[in-house]
Each structure stands twice: as C-alpha cells, then as structure tokens.
From TrEMBL:
It is an enzyme of class 5 (isomerase). Pathway: Amino-acid biosynthesis; L-tryptophan biosynthesis; L-tryptophan from chorismate: step 3/5. One of its GO terms (biological process) is L-tryptophan biosynthetic process. It catalyses: N-(5-phospho-beta-D-ribosyl)anthranilate = 1-(2-carboxyphenylamino)-1-deoxy-D-ribulose 5-phosphate. This is N-(5'-phosphoribosyl)anthranilate isomerase.
C-alpha cells in the first residue's frame, strides 16, 4: 500500500516526509487552499527527495491549460483532480500524467464515475466532500462500495489510519490536516506516526 503526505509547502517538509518513508508528496496548487504552494517550491522540493518519491500536483476546479502548465513548471509526476469535470478534460490530463481522480461517496455507482474510471491512467481516490477538511468518511458504510484499486483520503491520521485500512483495504492512503502543526506546516512526529501506522495495518 502507498502512503501520500499531502499539502507540502516547503523543501524542509518534503524531505521530512520522504525520510519518514512517504511514497508520494502532494503539492496543492488550488488557490482556495491554505496549503497553496508555488510551482517553483514544489519543483525544488521534488529535486531534494531523490528519484523514487512521487510528486503529485493537486488541483480543484482549474482550467486545463492552468493544470498542464503548472504541472510542467513544478515537474510533478502525477496529478490529483478534485471537483466536477468533463470527461474530455480528464482524458486530456491523463494523456500527460497519471491521475488520481477524487470522488465523494455520493459519486460512487454513478454512470459518469464509471466512465471516468474506465479511462487509462486514472485511479480513483475517495475523499470527504470538503477536501482538506480533516473529516473522516464512514468507512464501514463504504464496505462493498469502495472501488477496486482505489485510494482513501479524508480525515486520516496516525490515530485512525490503521482502522480505515483494515476496513477498506485501499491501494493507497493520503492525508494532510491531521499531519499538521499549523496550516501548511507539518508536525514531524505525526507524519512519522502516520506512515508507520499505515504500514503496520
Ligand atoms: O488541503 C487542502 O487545502 C485542499 C485544497 C483543495 C483540494 C484538495 C485539498 N486537500 C486534499 O484533501 C484530502 C484530504 O485532506 P484531509 O486529510 O481530510 O485534510 C487530500 O487528498 C488532500 O490532497
């Protein structure tokens, strides 16, 4: 199972998460976020974590041109897309980058969702309705609905990730709020504890 540490805003926090064993780092380029980072800092962070840590650019409701330009400037290795979007948009991004397509529980079972997830290079990630809000999903209620090969986000932290993994068996987990000392600043102990708990589940 892969572990992603999201909301990285500095080289320091990128190195901290990579040294703690993160498989992937998330860089949020959505202007609404208190974890907004510039492509320049994300690029520099990526250069400091070695060759095997994935760098994921996170976007919410942004235009195709902006997503592709920002991803290129930041030299990310994958893109995470939140919010409603047209199938052609998703197809266009997936032609350049592996995509984590973020879904809410209400999206599961919809025809449009099945169409999106049928595209090559698109991996589902289930998250709470408010991204970056630190609110866990009702994992027990999602048993049997959770998409095969999907990732899980939404209010995960050191104290609850093992339980979530046992219930839903995701291919990857992702967190931000519960790993922070303050908005956009990582708590080193919580980052380490999260990765250990996820791996030990
Ligand atoms: O964290 C944000 O500010 C954010 C803003 C816009 C899109 C996504 C954002 N974060 C994503 O939210 C999930 C889970 O966050 P949490 O652990 O519940 O706080 C994660 O995928 C982040 O990438």
């Amino acid at each position: 199972m892969r572990v992603k540490v999201c909301g990285t805003t500095s080289v320091h926090d990128a190195v901290l998460a990579a040294e703690a064993g993160a498989d992937a780092l998330g860089f949020i380029f959505a202007p609404v976020s208190k974890r907004l980072v510039t492509p320049e800092v994300a690029r520099e962070a990526g250069l400091n974590v070695g060759p095997v840590v994935a760098r994921v650019g996170v976007f919410l409701g942004q235009g195709l041109d902006e997503v592709l330009r920002t991803a290129e400037a930041a030299r990310v290795s994958a893109v995470q897309l939140h919010g409603p979007l047209a199938p052609l948009y998703l197809k266009a991004v997936a032609a350049y980058y592996p995509v984590l397509r973020v879904l809410r529980p209400a999206d599961l079972g919809r025809e449009a969702t099945a169409e999106e997830l049928g595209l090559p290079g698109v991996t589902p990630m289930l998250d709470a309705p408010q991204p970056g809000g630190g609110q866990p999903l009702d994992w027990a209620a999602l048993r049997g609905l959770f998409p095969a090969g999907g990732w899980l986000a939404g209010g995960l932290g050191p104290e609850n990730v093992a339980e979530a993994v046992r219930i839903l068996k995701p291919a990857g987990v992702d967190a931000v709020t519960r790993l922070e000392a303050a908005g956009g600043i990582k708590d080193a102990e919580r980052v380490r504890a999260f990765i250990q708990a996820a791996r030990g589940a």
